[in-house]
Amino acid sequence: NAGVTQTPKFQVLKTGQSMTLQCAQDMNHNSMYWYRQDPGMGLRLIYYSASEGTTDKGEVPNGYNVSRLNKREFSLRLESAAPSQTSVYFCASSGPRLTEAFFGQGTRLTVV
Amino acid sequence: GQQVMQIPQYQHVQEGEDFTTYCNSSTTLSNIQWYKQRPGGHPVFLIQLVKSGEVKKQKRLTFQFGEAKKNSSLHITATQTTDVGTYFCAGPLRSGDKLTFGTGTRLAVRP
Q1: Other CB atoms closer than 10 Å to residue A110's CB: what's the count?
Q2: Residue B107: count of CB within 10 angstroms of its CB
Q3: Which residues of chain A carry a pLDDT beneath 50?
Q4: What's the CA gap between A69 and A6, in Å, rounded?
Q5: Which residues of chain B have pLDDT under 50?
Q6: Which of B45, B103, B104 is facing A101, going by the closest CB pair?
Q7: Strand runs (DSSP E) across chain A, as ranges?
Q8: CB contacts < 8 Å between A and B, how many?
Q9: pLDDT in the model for residue B1
Q10: Distance (Å, rounded) from C-alpha B96 to C-alpha B110?
Q11: In this complex, do A56 and B103 lie within 8 Å of one another by their Cβ atoms?
Q12: For residue A73, what is the DSSP state?
């Protein structure tokens, strides 16, 4: 049982480049999330998807787009990366009635 | 703005001392969850409380859910170096459709 799988684990981008972070869960969860975590800071919600076919903005959505491709997959796209987007990105999913959340291993992104 | 606050933001204790972090929500939570994130790792679920006034224990960790279901606490007795990390509370705000995480408390332990 893999849980939540995120790819890639590490990425370096140049300012202005684009990339997509992939996330997949195999627990049949409805809710999926993307967070960013800056050094020494808490989790800030970028976007979430309460169910297949729906997505909503979180606290810090600017500069990002998401796609809930199907129930399993929820991707995060940076169209034009900026140094301020250097962070660790976590994907997570949670079960019925928003119980226990499972996190991916994280993607460490550096934008130079 | 942030609707689930935790205090303190950071605490540095001597190994063997006790530690408590407090979680306060602006609205009622249907459940409260606690997570631990080790340095360089990802948050990992510890426990969930559902009932008003509920208390649960896991070895040296004691979790409590407030009577009004708007606050919670995590108490660690006799901290060890393995307790180092950031502790987050989280829960679905009333009528919410997502989990909202608290601001986190980072614990450092001096050996």
Answers
A1: 13
A2: 20
A3: none
A4: 15
A5: none
A6: B45
A7: 4-7, 10-13, 19-25, 31-37, 44-49, 56-57, 64-68, 74-78, 87-94, 101-103, 107-111
A8: 61
A9: 55
A10: 39
A11: no
A12: B
